Amino acid sequence: MSFIGISGMQYAGASLSHHRILLVEDSNVFTSMISARLKELFGIQVELCRDFLQLEETYERSSDPITLAISNINLPGAENGEALNYLIDLSVPTIVFTGMFHQQTRDHLMSKEIVDYIIKDNVFAVDMLAESVCRFLTNHNHHVLIVDDSPTARALLSTRLKRYNFRVSTAESGAAALAILQANPDIGLMVTDYNMPDIDGFELTRRIRSFMGSHQLRIIGVSSSTDRMLSARFLKAGGNDFILRPFIDEEFYCRVNQNLDTLTQIRMANERKAA
């Protein structure tokens, strides 16, 4: 199957129809639109739950693992977000599809470590949801390396990326990162801190670029420094992107997606040329 998303994502690979996906939504309009779109694009037949009781029954009657849930915040019988809490408590990866949104809602959702949220406020909402579903189901194809001498920073970024279904490796130093890259040629993205004791982010990037180009590995630099010129220096060293801490989840995920989308497009173009 092949898919091109509205933000530039491209996927060409195995069918996604074997995944078990729950659609927890009471709106007839959106259940119809989402079900039809996911069936058309990916061959996915969603399991529909229109209220909290039906969600509980659907989960309890089958032991088959749920790959992903798409859930509204409020449902009949769960007007205060009980359905979302139920899914999170069961460790079911969940994309929230909601018409109610403000800063407090966003902060509440992100604290629950959901996969993503899509707002029902435009004609592209269902297509945006379909792309978010496709990303989650295919992100395991991407291997990401996190490089940071801080255990806390490594754990934070690793947890974020695993939430989105990426395969993740970590390195505590530039030297360890070089060894991991040599042993894992499938790594397509590296996120590296600037300030490290053995090899800083600039030097690490320079060394990597001596044997791996941007068509093989995308590199995002991160730093907590207030020096705005770090981004220019990092890009000139061969980096592809740079982001200052603290950053929000949506911004970080967008940067990761953009770089991996570019890498995918390069690889697909090269495959077409070779053919």
Task: Provide a descriptive summary of the structure in words.
The protein has 275 residues and is α/β, with parallel strands linked by helices. Helix content is 44%, strand content 19%. The protein is built from ten helices and twelve strands. The chain has helices at 28-42, 52-60, 82-89, 103-111, 125-138, 151-163, 174-183, 201-209, 230-236, 249-274, and strands spanning 2-4, 10-12, 21-24, 47-49, 68-71, 94-98, 116-119, 143-147, 167-171, 187-193, 218-223, 241-244. A five-stranded parallel beta sheet has the order 4-3-5-6-7, sandwiched between helices. A five-stranded parallel beta sheet has the order 9-8-10-11-12, sandwiched between helices. Strand 1 and strand 2 form a beta hairpin. 29% of the residues are buried. The model has no long low-confidence stretch (mean pLDDT 94).
